[in-house]
Amino acid sequence: MTRMFNFSAGPAMLPTAVIKRAQQEMLDWHGSGMSVMEMSHRGKEYMSIAAKAEQDLRDVMVIPDNYKVLFLQGGASMQFAAIPLNILGDKKTADYINTGMWSKKAIAEAKCYCDVNIAADTSSNGFTTVPTQAELKLNPDAAFVHYTPNETIGGVEFDYIPETGDVPLIADMSSTILSRPIDVSKFAMIYAGAQKNIGPAGLCIVIIREDLLGKASKQTPAMLNYETHASNGSMYNTPPTYSWYMAGLVFEWIKEQGGLVAMGQVNQRKAEKLYAVIDNSDFYGSPVAKNGRSWMNIPFTLADADLDAAFLAGAAEQGLITLKGHRSVGGMRASIYNAMPEAGVDALVAYMQSFEKSQG
Ligand SMILES: *Cc1c(COP(=O)(O)O)cnc(C)c1O
Question: Is residue 56 in contact with ligand 1, taking CB distance under 6 Å?
């Protein structure tokens, strides 16, 4: 068996230890005589799996007691509509910060439900920077402020948490959640599709402060109403049981690694190694401003784009796969979430250096 170093932006690598554990438990979970996939979500075995996963996430992220944690379907993209439907309340307008492709999608969806005030927009520089706090044109009457702390496609990550006063701050953390400690209390709501840094696809986690619940507009479908899921322990209907279980194994694994402080240290080191090769050569380049560089998604270009195909082919020979950049950005992109071992980054760094030499 060979496991590749898979630099996919998502679905992405999972820790090998987690997959092995799932394999051991596949046919018979803890003497239940069933696979987790075959369990009733209301049975005591599954209820214990679900509760432990939630508690482990609460421990790892230090989520305050006045926040609900929801395990939903529909991905992060479903929340783009659910957020205005649930959070607008009596208000008619919301602030959105536009820093890339995912912000844009959230904005397009929000426009179906409210007036969107674009508090900042970095499209003019090709989404390669983070707006400063001073540049944010926030509306004090907005129902909420929405932003994308880490733009997965552009590789742009905020180096600060926007200060929004009394206006609730909502963050699409799909590609940065669990990558380092964050102060949950600074946010009214955090959401993240699972397939980057949490577990397999099919699950979206919503962490929402309780005072935001119960204000959904009348037309909100029950399935999109956070109150429905909060008051039913995310079991109003059948939740994505297996993805929830796998996420729980990942949370346990993070605890074993030393929690988010330890994850953050490794992630910072991994990212710095990669940016060092990029910055110390004229052969490679990063389009992203230095203070906005993501630890998780690292786009880079070759000075001569005609070498892209050779670079990718050579990388694949070394077991370094899915490095092709997003079609909208071009070049390469290395996504190095928690589950990418440091050895994978070391192997990529070594390959980049040898490829550069070979091209003289
Ligand atoms: C991947 C991603 C999404 C979309 O997630 P889905 O679960 O596929 O809907 C949204 N926002 C960000 C920042 C992402 O990285």
Answer: no
